Amino acid sequence: MKSGFVALIGRPNVGKSTLMNRLIGQKIAITSPRPQTTRNRIQTVYTEERGQIVFVDTPGIHKAKNKLGDYMMNIANQSMKNVDVILWLVEPSDKIGEGEQHIIRQLKNIKIPVILVINKIDTAKRPELLKYIDAYRRIYDFSEIIPVSALKGENTQDILDTLYGYLPEGPYFFDEDTVTDQPMRQIAAELIREKALRNLEKEIPHGIAVVIEKMEYRKCGKGIYDIEATIICERDSHKGIIIGKGGAMLKKIGSLARPEIEDMLEAQVNLKLWVKVRKDWRDSDLLIKNFGYRKEDYPKA
Ligand SMILES: Nc1nc2c(ncn2[C@@H]2O[C@H](COP(=O)(O)OP(=O)(O)OP(=O)(O)O)[C@@H](O)[C@H]2O)c(=O)[nH]1
Ligand SMILES: [Mg+2]
Fold first, then answer.
1. Which partner for 167 in 4, 117, 243, 256 could form a disulfide, CB atoms 3.0-4.6 Å apart?
2. Ligand 1 atom with the shortest distance to the CA of 57
């Protein structure tokens, strides 16, 4: 039996979370067209007859501009060092910029097999792919290079087959029913944040956090959860936009998040949303901690 940890790393927005969800066949990590969607280390477990793979999704590697950014980068850096295999995701391009060079410098200090995943090949012209593979091959000694489309599920099975070739023999780390280390509460908060990210204008999403204030179960029919959540933002003007005209935006965020939370909890959900302003929370250790981002969450695996 094989088992081990596999980190998904790369710049923001390259499709790490989309790929992880695809590989395990379930939506656990939220995804959006906004960079810096993932803020935490998210572990998911994939078990089959060949063995068990623990995937570690990480925040996109970028220049931190506040304490939340420092926190996110610490998670990405730690995750890279504590796994058996690294999947480095990149866009289909031969433009290798400072962002990629920075990642290469970090990889050069690590003696872990690195598999380059060229994602989003559905957006690239086939003949160009060879050019991209060649450009990357020149700058690092990758164990493998695999072009895929996480969104369409193209070639993603190849990643699983390849990974088993690099994982050590060993026992399961989790029982076979385990899917993730993320508590339900956290996933519910993230689903609400995802709907905010996907529906709000560009400058607002980065400053948003979601806190579940209450999540209570009532036995009634197939069961009901009463959930109260607060969307935290950084400015009064943002609060107005998140609420929207006559509450329309907040209603939209709630009505998009609710069915997904219901699917996850396999129960009915009563969802109440509030919006609060906490100026510059992304630079406050105390508030970052209050909003569920904890230093203790750093990987130890
Ligand atoms: N066309 C196309 N789009 C993709 C593919 N994979 C991901 N995307 C899109 O790219 C965007 C970013 O995807 P995410 O999975 O959130 O990216 P990420 O790397 O986790 O981003 P961060 O968490 O911000 O670091 C989303 O809009 C996805 O739908 C793909 O294979 N093809
Ligand atoms: Mg992500």
1. 4
2. 20
**Domain definitions of the chain by residue range:** 2-166, 184-297
**pTM > 0.90:** yes
Our CA dihedral for 265, 184, 7, 71, rounded to 10 degrees, sits at 150
pLDDT at 85 > cutoff 50: yes
Arch. (CATH architecture) of 184-297: 2-Layer Sandwich (3.30)
Amino acid at 17: S
Residue 242 has a pLDDT of 96
Ligand 1 is surrounded, with C-beta below 6 A, by 10, 12-18, 31-33, 35-38, 59-60, 119-120, 122-123, 149-151
Closest by alpha carbon to 215, among 266, 269, 255, 254?
A: 269
The one-letter amino acid at 90 = V
Asked: is 2-166 a CATH 3.40.50.300 domain? The reply is yes
* Eight-state DSSP code of residue 107: H
